[in-house]
Amino acid sequence: MLNKKKASLLFDLDNTLVDRDAAFHAYMQNFIVRNQAAFSDEDMSVVHDEMIALDCHGRKDRKLFCHEVLQRFPGLPYTAESLWEDHMSLPDFVKPDSVLNEMLERLSADYQLMIISNGSANMQRRKLQRAGLTDYFEYIFISAEVGYAKPDTRLFSHALNHCRHASIVMIGDDYVNDMQPAIAMRLKTVFINPENEIAAIRPDYELSSIHDLEEALACMI
Questions:
Q1: pTM, to two decimals
Q2: What's the rounded Cα separation, in Å, for the pair 169 and 163?
């Protein structure tokens, strides 16, 4: 029987639970230092900014990202495949957020916590481990393992089959991948929106930080 007093919370991973952009910045600084010879005629701050722009917050297809990086910086000693292998070290730059972890510990007592994330299993699970988040979540659904990627509603439907509560909330930072399909499926929605992105259809809540989630849930559930 569904428990209507609590809720199942579906969390996005990158830039929702894990500061993936900060990890990418740190990785890229390390990458540039390791490959200085390939950038000898470039302004390093410009190189860094261009890499960040090419990355598109991790939302760009990784094969396309590697291709564009090598096209822009042909002196790099990589193939697209070896550049992707180097990029696989990104989780090593993820930092735990003790405030977030403490909040998830409290939430886990009252809610069913689940993750619904795009990406490769190896990369996403290593990010979770580095951030110290794995043990808070009853289920972790990653697109590469399930076979569907957000915004495909089949990934959401797969997760919904494991929800134990009538009330289900999707929490994420990507309006297209997280909010739109959740709204279409009539789930409750919390949009982590620090840049104040204008939403075509407003989610139930918009927060500038995941740290404010508890207060929002208290008003929603």
A1: 0.93
A2: 10
